[in-house]
# Entry
Amino acid sequence: MLQLKKKLLLAAVLAGSAASSHAFQDGKIVIWGAGDDRGRSAWERIGAQFEADTGVGLVIETPDPITDKFQQAAATGDGPDLIFFAHDRFGEWGNSGLISAIDIEPELRETIEDFAWDAVTVGDKVFGYPMFAEAVSLIYNKKYIQTPPASFEEIVAGINVPAGVEPIMWDYNNTYFSMPLLAANGGYAFEKIDGNYNADETGVNNDGAVKGAHMIRSLIDAGMPVGIDYGIMDAEFAEGKVGMIINGPWSWSGYEEAGIDFGLAAIPSVDGAAAKPFVGVWSIGVNASSPNKDLVKLFMEEYVLNDEALTAIVAAGLNGAMVDKTVAATQNDARLAITLESAKAGVPMPNNPEMGAFWSAMGPALGNITSGRQEVQEALDDAATRILGE
# Structure
């Protein structure tokens, strides 16, 4: 039986939608991205209950590539009512008028972690409903590492592992994976001021970023292999040839299948400062062209964003650190708990368009640093110049 609040909202929505809502006439709300790895079977059950109560069904589609197809469709007033994707595209889509700002009641805001709301906020506008967070952590092979190191300085000094096993490696020329070190002491891509990113300034070459990059270089000087990329790291860890890596939740199933007994820990500190990974918050945005915004609001806020529904979505296969505070506390998964702590300690991935220049400049800079082609300060200064277009 529907709660009184839901009954009143339902009556108001249906009264306002019967004459004008195209989807109410067609009997459907369309969501893109709620596939098998996002708890599809639970979404289907939630949709069935919504249809039983409203007469409006839920259609789940998983087009590929979802971002390209959404942008093309939404730009012409078409596409799904809802899209389930990482928050870092939401700023661009919101500023381009492809997704709508959402009015969030204080009661709902209180149920979800602050960093998740920050991720989907541009200026004073909220452009999505946060669902779960992803962030990298230290992943260690318990066969070789009993107590993971608290600092990178400990690793440089030496970690005891068997002959033929590398103490640590990661895709260090990929800025996403090295950002925890660069940001630990104050490095940053772009600073968020009053809800907006300042694209006229970058912190990739400030003292903190330089300190983090020097640590990466120190690890290589201490013996970390040169030329490591994601594929090498992933394969070596799965084969039991490395003690520690930096990676995210998407990798866990592969290591489990390989029979690796692994644990998670916070990424080690740099010069006493906690590592700060980039955080991705998977969220649900509302198509600005949707004629069903009242129905969508009812569906999301009364049928999806509650403990029972979110718990069902997790049970149906969504393997992410939920940002709903109550649901996160009941996930009872040590790995997800550490992932959530990493996310809380981290920095939401900036969602301004200038991030394209950031990625393009930082990859070569890190490659030059780790290969020894450039000194740290010079490489990061060059990256900053490219990012700012100077």
Notes: The domain at 4-134+280-348 is CATH 3.40.190.10 (D-Maltodextrin-Binding Protein; domain 2).
